[in-house]
Design brief:
Blueprint (H helix, E strand, L loop, with lengths): L14 E5 L2 E5 L2 H9 L1 H4 L3
Antiparallel strand pairs: 1-2
The protein binds zinc ion.
Zinc ion binds next to loops.
Length: 45
């Protein structure tokens, strides 16, 4: 799986955030924070 913010490879052990029923994983806290502030910017359908 990939970090939706920076496109780095991440695993289920990485920090996660849930949005609209889907769980996303992040390489670091700052990517997670950026995603949580504006999830729609980072989600590609
Ligand atoms: Zn990242």
């Amino acid at each position: 799986m990939k970090d939706p913010v920076c496109d780095m490879d991440v695993t289920e052990k990485n920090d996660a955030s849930e949005y609209e029923g889907k769980v996303y994983h992040f390489c670091c806290a700052s990517c997670k924070m950026a995603f949580e502030q504006n999830p729609k910017q980072f989600i590609k359908e």
